[in-house]
Amino acid sequence: MNIAFISSQGGHVGQIKLIFTNKVIGNKKAILITESSNPLSPKEKNFNNKYKTYFFKKDNLRFNPIKYLTTMLKLIKIYKKEKIDTIITNGAQISIPAVIGAKFLGIRTLFIDTVIRVKTPNWSARACYPFSDIFLVQHSNMARKYGKKAKYVGGIL
Amino acid sequence: MIFVTVGTHPEQFDRLLRKIDEIAPKISEKIIVQRGFTRYHPKNCESFDFKPNLDSYYRKARLVIAQSATSLIEFAIKYDKPVITVPRQKRFREHINDHQVEFAEFFAKKTGVLTIINVNDLTPNLLKSYKKKAKIDKRNLYKLQNYFKSLFDRMSKIK
Question: Is the pLDDT of residue A42 over 60?
């Protein structure tokens, strides 16, 4: 099993790191794809000090279809190179080209909604919903706000 | 030391930083501010924009004042320290929507920490005497992690 975790910077990638400890990932192969606007210390260049990490420049993808497309092509290249068979993403914008690109290659897609939304659905999760094989929310009341496929199995809080 | 952090969101959060700057000369404790993209530089306390890692500041702090983002959860899980949270608000153009207010209220209810909606509620006396730590119940996190452990095991059997 080859997993790619894909997540925007800040709290999004923070949530991935909280959930997917080395113990949870176990002996599976994994990489992380995220964004960065800050200079990184060598320690941060590998997710959990163990898994290879790819950085995208922090970019505002919204309302720019060309940027979405180029980001998707870059992601597809990484999927192929790393022989990815499962992606796990939790937003924000980067997850849209990530799930669509994965669908083109027949890669399993898994979306986790952000823990920060406790009442209202957010648009990147809505956009990813149709392309996600498994769609998880982190608050039990949020499942019905997205659709039948959405389920609650626990959350960070 | 009191550590104030506003994260990596590109919009301004000077409402909080101005208030902290106003309070700084009125208390003897040292204040350090992480400004992020906020252009306002506090004059009465030390500040910086970004550091790759804030752990050393969290470790040294007696009290943390933070924007209402998910980093709060990480902080509360890692450090047993008092925290006050101040959400960014749409009407002050501090964020694209009011999800931080929604989250701050939820986080306060769940963990018992103080949420400040109006920065004028931040006073020198409050900062001096505030002691409430965030109480995090990790059961839901363990549930989610166990779900993934068994999902990964099932998935690798298929392949």
Answer: no
* Amino acid at the residue A88: I
Question: Would you call B61 helix, strand, or coil by DSSP?
Answer: coil
Give the gap in angstroms from C-alpha B146 to the nearest C-alpha of chain A: 8
CB contact under 8 A, A26 and B50: no
Which strands form B2-5's sheet, in the order they lie side by side?
B46-48, B31-34, B2-5, B63-67, B83-86, B114-115
The alpha carbon of residue A157 is apart from the nearest alpha carbon of chain B, in Å, by 6
CA A116 to chain centre: 15
Question: Are residues B111 and B134 in contact, defined by beta-carbon separation less than 8 angstroms?
Answer: yes
Q: Give pTM, 2 decimals.
A: 0.88
User: What would the CATH number be for the domain defined by B2-156?
Assistant: 3.40.50.2000
Any bridge partners for residue A30, and if so which?
Answer: A3
Question: How confident is the model over B95-111, as a mean pLDDT?
Answer: 93
Residue recorded with tokens 């997205």: A146
Specify the residue for token string 């975790």.
A5
Q: Find the angle CA(A126)-CA(A128)-CA(A133) to the nearest 5 degrees.
A: 120
Please tell me the predicted confidence (pLDDT) of residue A37: 66
Residues B133, B114: contact at Cβ < 8 Å? Answer: no
Whether the ipTM is more than 0.85: the answer is yes
- Round to whole Å and give the CA distance between A10 and B134: 20
**Closest residue of chain B to A116, computed from CA coordinates:** B103
B94 burial level (CB within 10 Å; 0-12, 13-18, 19+): buried
